[in-house]
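Homework help thread (please don't just give me the answer)

Our assignment gives two proteins as sequence + structure token strings and asks us to describe the second one. The first is just a warm-up. Here they are:
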Amino acid sequence: MKRVRRSAACLAMAVIFCASAAGSARTVFLANDYGAKGDGKNLDTIAIQKAIDAAAVAGGTVSLQPGLYRTGSLFLKSGVTLDLPEGATLIGSESLNDYPMLPTRIAGIEMSWPSALINVRDQHDVKITGKGTIDGDGPVWWKSYWDLRASYEPKGLRWAADYDCRRPRLMLIQSSSNVEVGGGIELKRSGFWTVQILYSHDVHVDGVVIRNNEGGRGPSTDGIDIDSSRKVLVEHADIDVNDDALCLKAGRDADGLRVNRPTEEIVLRDSIVRHGAAAVTIGSETSGGFRNIEAYNITAQSGVPSGVLFKSAHTRGGFAENIRIHDLTLEGVAIPIHITMNWNPSYSYATLPEGMKDVPPYWITLTTKVPADEGLPHFHDVHIWNIKATGAKRAFEVSAYPNATLDDFRLDHLDIDAATAGAIANAKNWRLADNKIHTADGTAPVFTDATVSDPREVPYGEPK
């Protein structure tokens, strides 16, 4: 235990040191001096980008006077700090033409996609801070998605809606290093994912406030997605979203297996999730795998259906190993321990309707078959401890496959009050110890195709 905690602390300090290297005394470049109006009507993209470009030459800071700045995609450059003071808001353009199409990975596959509102691509030593706001003006993008999905679902194309409806992310950090985001900045109403950290390393996200449920409930408005990246620290986040909140990803199906880049050396800590899919999520894009992950001191409230959520599919492949999740407080979370390797089949398994031709190239990518033995995900060596959950519906909902079991999990010091115990299936060499599972119906967990150290170590009965 002590060795694990020391390694996490060392990682956190290393990330903070690297990401803060660009934060010394700097020349300030005021975007207003380059023509930014801040009236919420005129498009200020060109003026703000001019300030960024000038700051990149000098290694300076870009700032703005209080105001509402309507803008398309902005591209930060190495050595630049974007400092949004309180009262200054960047609000996204409602025209897709203001977000240039560029190569990236979206929802697990590499393809061209609209640029994010704020982009850090192939850069280093970049900082985004301040108590201002970055607003994606999400409702226009959310409506476009729901309209498209309503027409796709009757055709058996639920899986395609997320890829065909091009919605800008709020912030993308791609193929970059030594990046810091935080300082109390508010990120809100993202059209799609809020912060995607992709193919990057040495990234520190500290003290962001994410609010994506204002003016509606945006689909797929993930909070922070760490995607095939390494050495990332996320802390002191306050998240209210309508999908994954703190989420680790690593590619989808054939394309994810081709790229084969893991997410590793990640710390998530000291955060609150008010609404979202789970307190901590791994997947469903698991193809590149996960290793050396620690998440702790996270609170999830009643708008969150799962506590620890691992999700994948039998076409994803990949692995998870040396995962440590502990000291979670779950208040009214329906399923504290939720693991499924057959996640959302209508989305996870992409198949072309018979006779359909002239489809986009990425549809071919999505529907490329994965050999059965390569598609099974393998999760093992996971330790989950010190979980306090009240008001749960089911303590456990765990399943995988008989030929790809969940191996060598250790669950201890769980304190869960639930209506019923639930079930654990397809689990091998699990150790359950020092747990208190209180169930209103008096049930104990049902074990199917599972070997557990001693199921009697899981007490159950009427809650106190």
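The one we have to describe:
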Amino acid sequence: MAAPTRAWEYLRVSGTTETDLAAVGRAGWDLVGVTTGGGSATLYFKRPGLDFRERVALEQQLRVYDRLGLPLPHAPDADLQP
């Protein structure tokens, strides 16, 4: 039986700072391409997508922290979603 294929997530970012790029890296994104035009660069990233079990665990964790009014234990990357 063949191993399941892992899906990828993709992210396109323009006009970033070093702080933004550090956050992207901490969120697990890898730079895979750059295009330039109009005086600015567009960066393309990818990272392995979460499988079903990982997505459920993450959603449960976020709900518990939200319900308790606690800050997340790591920097959220909601703005870094594809």
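TA reply:
I won't write it for you, but here's a hint about the kind of observation we're looking for: The radius of gyration is 16 Å.
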